[in-house]
Every structure is written in structure tokens, then in C-alpha cells.
């Protein structure tokens, strides 16, 4: 141990430039040469194939509205104590500019960080300041949509216990857009082009209080830049600019 503390210290910064600058001011030799993946271009990084995308249903999770869940996001756990299965959902961000409505800005990111760093630990740690705990409780009290996220995984937590029952004809989960719902001609859609989606909207296939906002959000994303697609994974409907028939 003595040899370690008596030797020359070299630091390689793989984080922010502030870390490098602080060490330089203290006379520490720091090598700072860090570039974010894909040069910081989020869209390019998403399209690079280095990030794995999947439907929430594939991970026993439910994502209200846009349904984005990333590894750093805290989740609620809904447990079926009788059968032992679990479902997961994100914390409802509240109203205004929020990720679940498709917004993306510094304000959105700031709220998500607050949920991760301040809000969730307020319920998991016992040594937090009382003011922090009051902030967390006030966030729930002022958010009339808070229970929405909790209500959505509750039915799957009960129904998923029925998977694998021989002879059962009960549908456990629907995880794909479709047309002609509740009619003999009902069908699911695995892939949907922009023109097809717009035609279905015009024909009233996606109700205003149900699927329409989600479909419009997917279309907005796909048409915002050439080559973009929305939704990936084994379940769900894949929105593309144009369906290519091979």
C-alpha cells in the first residue's frame, strides 16, 4: 500500500471536462480525451445497432403513452403475491413537457434526473432529510395522473399467471396495433407505413381517446428524419416510412 501512495499518480478522465480541469488545478497530470458515442448524435447512436430495443411486454413491463424505459430509470414493481410473477412500470412524470408524451428537452431530462436521484431514494432510504421526503410526497399529491402508471401493469400481473394453462383460450396481452377492432375482420398490423397509417387515421381506425395520440407520435418521429423507424422488438407495430415488399 505504501508503494502505491508514494508513486506518481496518473489519471485518465473518461467523464466530464470539469473532472479533468479540477485535477489539473491541483497539479495532477490528467489525460483528457473522451468523445461521446456516435459523436453525441443520439439519433445516429440509436440507428447504429449498438443499443438493443425491445417492447415493454417482452420484459413484463408496461409503458404508458410512448412507453420508454431505460436502464437508469426507476420503476414501480407490481407483484402478484399469489403466483409470484411481477410487472413493472415507470414513475408518472406529471403533466406538461414529459417524455411519456414524446417531449425531449433539458426540462424533460432534468425532471427524469430528479425522479432518479431525489424522488425514488426518498422512499428507499431512511436517513434522508425530511424536506426531501416532503418534496417526494408533494410530487404525488400534485400529480393527478400518478396512479395511471400503477393501474396499467396491475391487470397483466393478474392475467400473466394464466400463461401456459393447457386448453385455455383467454387472451393475456394485446401488444400490437390493429384495425377493425372487435369485428370479424379484425387484424393486427406488424408493419405500417406512413401513408397506410394516415389512411387508417382518416378512416377512424385509431380512436382519439385511445390509439390516435400514440400513432401520431410515432408518425411524427418517423417523418422527422429520413430513414427513421419507430418501435422495435418481437411485439408491437413497426412504423416505417415505406413498406418494401420483397
Short description, anyone?
The protein is of the alpha/beta class and about 250 residues long.
Overview of the structural elements:
- With 246 residues, the protein is an alpha/beta fold.
- It is built from 10 helices and 9 strands.
- The chain has helices spanning 2-6, 17-25, 42-47, 106-119, 121-124, 130-142, 146-151, 154-159, 194-202, 212-223; strands spanning 10-13, 29-32, 61-62, 75-79, 86-90, 178-179, 187-188, 191-193, 238-240.
- A hairpin with a 6-residue loop joins strand 4 (75-79) and strand 5.
- The model has no long low-confidence stretch (mean pLDDT 80).
Radius of gyration from CA coordinates: 23 Å
Arithmetic mean pLDDT = 80
How much β-strand is present in the residues? 5-15%
Number of strands: 9
For this structure, the CATH topology of the largest domain is: Enterococcus faecalis V583 fold
Largest sheet: 3 strands, mixed
> Which sequence of SSEs, written as H and E, runs from N to C?
HEHEHEEEHHHHHEEEHHE
* Gross geometry: globular
Q: How widely separated are the two ends?
A: 65 Å
Low-confidence stretches: none
Strand order of the largest sheet: 3-5-4
Question: How many structural domains are formed by the residues?
Answer: 3
Give the class-level CATH name of the largest domain: Alpha Beta
- What is the CATH homologous superfamily assignment of the largest domain? Enterococcus faecalis V583 domain
The level of helicity is: 25-40%
Quaternary status: single chain
Q: What is the count of helical runs?
A: 10
CATH architecture of the largest domain: Alpha-Beta Complex
Amino acid at each position: 500500500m505504501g508503494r502505491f501512495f508514494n508513486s506518481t499518480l496518473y489519471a485518465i478522465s473518461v467523464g466530464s471536462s470539469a473532472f479533468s480541469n479540477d485535477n489539473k488545478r491541483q497539479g495532477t497530470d490528467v489525460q483528457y480525451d473522451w468523445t461521446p458515442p456516435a459523436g453525441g448524435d443520439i439519433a445516429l447512436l440509436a440507428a447504429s445497432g449498438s443499443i438493443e430495443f425491445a417492447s415493454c411486454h417482452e420484459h413484463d413491463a408496461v409503458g404508458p403513452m410512448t412507453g420508454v424505459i431505460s436502464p437508469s430509470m426507476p420503476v414501480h414493481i407490481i407483484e402478484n403475491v399469489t403466483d409470484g410473477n411481477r410487472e413493472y412500470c415507470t414513475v408518472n412524470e406529471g403533466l406538461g413537457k414529459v417524455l411519456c408524451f414524446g417531449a425531449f428537452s433539458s426540462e424533460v431530462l432534468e425532471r427524469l434526473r430528479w425522479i432518479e436521484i431525489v424522488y425514488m431514494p426518498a422512499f428507499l432510504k431512511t436517513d434522508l432529510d425530511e424536506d426531501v421526503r416532503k418534496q417526494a410526497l408533494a410530487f404525488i399529491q400534485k400529480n393527478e395522473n400518478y396512479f395511471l402508471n400503477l393501474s396499467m401493469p396491475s391487470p397483466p400481473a393478474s392475467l400473466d399467471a394464466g400463461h401456459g394453462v393447457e386448453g385455455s383460450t383467454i387472451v393475456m396481452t394485446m401488444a400490437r396495433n390493429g384495425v377493425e377492432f372487435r369485428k370479424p375482420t379484425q387484424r393486427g398490423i406488424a408493419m405500417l407505413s406512413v401513408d397506410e397509417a394516415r389512411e387508417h387515421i382518416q378512416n377512424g381506425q385509431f380512436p382519439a381517446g385511445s390509439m390516435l395520440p400514440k400513432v401520431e407520435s410515432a408518425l411524427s418521429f418517423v417523418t422527422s428524419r429520413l430513414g427513421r423507424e419507430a418501435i422495435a422488438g418481437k411485439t408491437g407495430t413497426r412504423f416505417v416510412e415505406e413498406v418494401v415488399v420483397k
